[in-house]
Design goal:
This protein is of the alpha+beta class. The chain folds into 2 domains: 1-29; 31-98. It has 2 helices and 4 strands, in the order αβαβββ. The chain has a 4-stranded mixed sheet with strand order 1-4-3-2, with no helix packed on it. The protein is globular, with a radius of gyration of 18 Å.
Length: 98
């Protein structure tokens, strides 16, 4: 009976942790600087974009900064239907560390 209680607590804890991490991912969807996706490399940026929009074509990539001088990469793509989409990436982990 004691093992069953521990198992139930473990399952509930894992479920709550899983929901919390899913919420965090939706907060950082890359649609704005405030919701920028944190990355460790440019390669990671392109991997994420390929997952989000596999058939998109790159239009531009630019470096920009927020009011706190935090660096962001902004990748602009064209979807197959002609719609333009931008993805914002927080590059502060690696920007300027070459």
């Amino acid at each position: 009976m004691k093992k069953l209680k521990y198992l139930i607590v473990l399952v509930i804890s894992l479920a709550l942790f899983s929901c919390a991490s899913t919420q965090n991912q939706s907060l950082n969807d890359g649609n704005s600087m405030e919701k920028a996706i944190k990355v460790s490399s440019v390669e990671q940026e392109y991997k994420i974009v390929r997952e989000k929009c596999a058939d998109c074509k790159l239009k531009s990539q630019r470096l920009t900064f927020n009011d706190k001088e935090q660096p962001f990469d902004v990748l602009t793509f064209i979807k197959p239907n002609g719609e333009e989409v931008k993805y914002y990436f927080d590059i502060s982990k690696f920007y300027g560390r070459f």
